[in-house]
């Protein structure tokens, strides 16, 4: 898990949307992402949960991630 911290308007949400492949149409990015020196495919390795999503207050962070994965995820989760 990674924390992205910054002032309002600094681009945190835009960065995370870009990594998750959820940018608004018309916005383009280029480049590549490396993790531990290996190229990564962000759409396959990342997820984005907006601060405006409806969350179940009774669930832990881990339970929330597993719940979201079951609804929208790929075949693997670690």
TrEMBL record:
Residues 2-64 form the ABC transporter domain. The keyword Ligase does not apply. This is ABC transporter domain-containing protein. Keywords: Transport. Pfam families: ABC_tran. PANTHER family: ATP-BINDING CASSETTE TRANSPORTER. GO terms for molecular function: ATP binding; ATP hydrolysis activity.
């Amino acid at each position: 898990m990674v924390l992205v911290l910054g002032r309002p308007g600094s681009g945190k949400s835009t960065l995370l949307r870009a990594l998750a492949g959820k940018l608004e149409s018309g916005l383009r990015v280029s480049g590549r992402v490396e993790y531990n020196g290996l190229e990564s495919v962000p759409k396959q390795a990342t997820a984005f949960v907006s601060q405006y999503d409806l969350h179940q207050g009774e669930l832990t962070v881990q339970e929330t991630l597993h719940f979201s994965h079951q609804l929208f995820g790929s075949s693997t989760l670690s």
